[in-house]
Write a structure and sequence with these properties.
Mean pLDDT: 93
Structural class: alpha/beta
Shape: globular
Number of strands: 9
Strand content: 15-25%
Oligomer: single chain
Helix content: 40-55%
Strand order of the largest sheet: 3-2-1-4-5-6-9
C-alpha cells in the first residue's frame, strides 16, 4: 500500500490504523526527517515498511516512488492519494504560485501518480485506488475556491476511473471528510482563531477517516462522506433547491472560513 502525505495528520493516522493488521506500507512524504520515527514505530509493531521521499508535485519523484515500490514489494495493491495542502484566503489575494502549488499538490500529483500505478494494477488483475477529497469538493467553500476546485476535481477523477477500470478489477473510491480534528488543517485554524465550526456543520476525526479508508479497501464503494451530522441531505437539498441550499451552506460556514482566510493572510 502506498500512502502519500504519510507523516502527519490524516495520513499518519491511516498508516497507524492499517498497521493493526499484516500489511506492507510504502510511506511517501516530502520531508524525509518526518518519516524515520513513524517507520520505526510501525516496524516495531510488525509492519513491513518502505519510506520514499516524494514531492507529489515532481513527476520524477512519482516515477521513482512507483519503481521503488515494485522493486521492493513486487506489486501495488492499494494507492492512497492523501497528500494535500489548504488554500484559504481571499481569492484575489492569492499569488499565482499559491494557486499552482495547490492544484499540483492536491490534484495533479494524484492524477499523475495514479497513471503510473494503474499499469501495475492492470498486470496484477486487481487493485484499489483511494483519493482523499473533502466535503469542500461537494460544495466549494467561500474563501477556498481553489481548494474546493481541487477536491471537486478528485471526485470527478475518481468517477471517471471507476467507469473505465472497474471491469478490469481496479476499484476507485473517493473519500470526502468534513472538518477533521487531528487532521491538520482544521486544528490549525482553531488554534489560530480560537473558534470552531458551527455544530450544524459538524465534522469528523482523523481516526474516523482512517476507518473509512479501511472500509473502502474492503468494500470498494464509489464514495464515502465522513462527517457528523450527515451532509448528504444538505447536498441533496442544494441540488433540488440550489439557491436555498447555497444560502444554508454559506450561512453555516462563511464566518468560520473568513477567519481562516484572515489567519492565512496575517503577516
Amino acid at each position: 500500500m502506498i500512502v502519500t502525505g504519510a507523516s502527519a495528520g490524516i495520513g499518519r493516522t491511516i498508516c497507524e490504523r492499517l498497521a493493526r493488521r499484516p500489511v506492507r506500507l510504502v510511506l511517501a512524504v516530502r520531508a524525509a526527517d518526518r518519516l524515520d520515527e513513524l517507520q520505526t514505530r510501525l516496524e516495531r509493531s510488525g509492519t513491513s515498511c518502505l519510506s520514499v521521499t516524494t514531492d507529489v508535485c515532481d513527476p520524477n519523484d512519482l516515477d521513482r516512488l512507483v519503481r521503488a515500490t515494485v522493486a521492493h514489494f513486487g506489486r501495488i495493491d492499494v494507492l492512497i492519494n492523501n497528500a494535500g495542502i489548504d488554500c484559504f484566503a481571499e481569492f484575489e489575494k492569492l499569488t499565482t504560485e499559491q494557486i499552482l502549488q495547490t492544484i499540483e499538490t492536491n490534484l495533479t500529483g494524484s492524477i499523475l501518480l495514479t497513471r503510473l500505478v494503474v499499469p501495475v494494477m492492470r498486470a496484477q488483475g486487481q487493485g484499489t485506488i483511494i483519493n482523499m477529497a473533502s466535503t469542500a469538493g461537494k460544495h466549494g467553500p467561500a474563501y477556498g475556491a481553489v481548494y474546493g476546485a481541487t477536491k471537486a476535481g478528485l471526485i470527478g477523477f475518481t468517477q471517471g476511473l471507476r467507469g473505465e477500470l472497474l471491469e478490469q478489477g481496479i476499484r476507485a473510491t473517493v473519500i470526502c471528510p468534513g472538518f477533521t480534528t487531528n487532521g491538520g488543517i482544521y486544528d490549525r485554524i482553531v488554534a489560530a482563531t480560537g473558534k470552531r465550526i458551527s455544530p450544524l456543520v459538524g465534522g469528523t476525526t482523523a481516526d474516523a477517516v482512517a476507518s473509512a479508508v479501511e472500509r473502502a479497501i474492503r468494500d470498494g464503494m464509489p464514495e464515502l462522506i465522513v462527517n457528523w451530522p450527515a451532509m448528504r441531505p444538505i447536498f441533496l437539498l442544494r441540488d433540488l433547491f440550489p439557491r436555498l441550499g447555497e444560502m444554508l451552506i454559506v450561512k453555516m460556514t462563511k464566518k468560520f472560513l473568513r477567519r481562516a482566510a484572515t489567519m492565512n493572510s496575517a503577516p
